[in-house]
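Thread: quick sanity check before group meeting

JM: Hey all, I'm pulling together slides for Thursday and realized we never actually wrote out the predicted structure for the chain we discussed last week. Dropping the sequence here so it's in one place. If anyone has concerns about the input, flag it before I start.
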Amino acid sequence: MTKKQKLFIEHFKKSGNVSKTCEAIGIGRTTFYNWYKLREDFAQEIDNIKEAVIDSVEDKLFEKIQAGDVTAIIFFLKTKAKHRGYTEKYEVTQQSEPQKVIVEFIDEEQNS
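JM (edit): ok, ran it. Output follows.
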């Protein structure tokens, strides 16, 4: 791994943001994505940092849940307990326009 890539990793650990890190070390986002595609060791470090950020945010969410925050509880159940039925259910209805067209077509056939 190059010095610039190591520098990227150091900055990325602090910000967790690709754009900010690229700007801080003076590279373009395309360079970052090329490094990510071509260097397995670099990509693994980036993936590890991303997972650590998710872990940290999950810790904060769990703290909110323990404190009784209803919004946090609902969010958790909708994302982690879907298999138990905690999902949003949407009712999809068909618009009547296609049926209207079919009725008009049938009427025209009967009038001929």
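AS: nice. Residues 40-66 form the longest helix (27 residues). Residues 106-110 have pLDDT under 50 and may be disordered.
JM: adding both to the slides.
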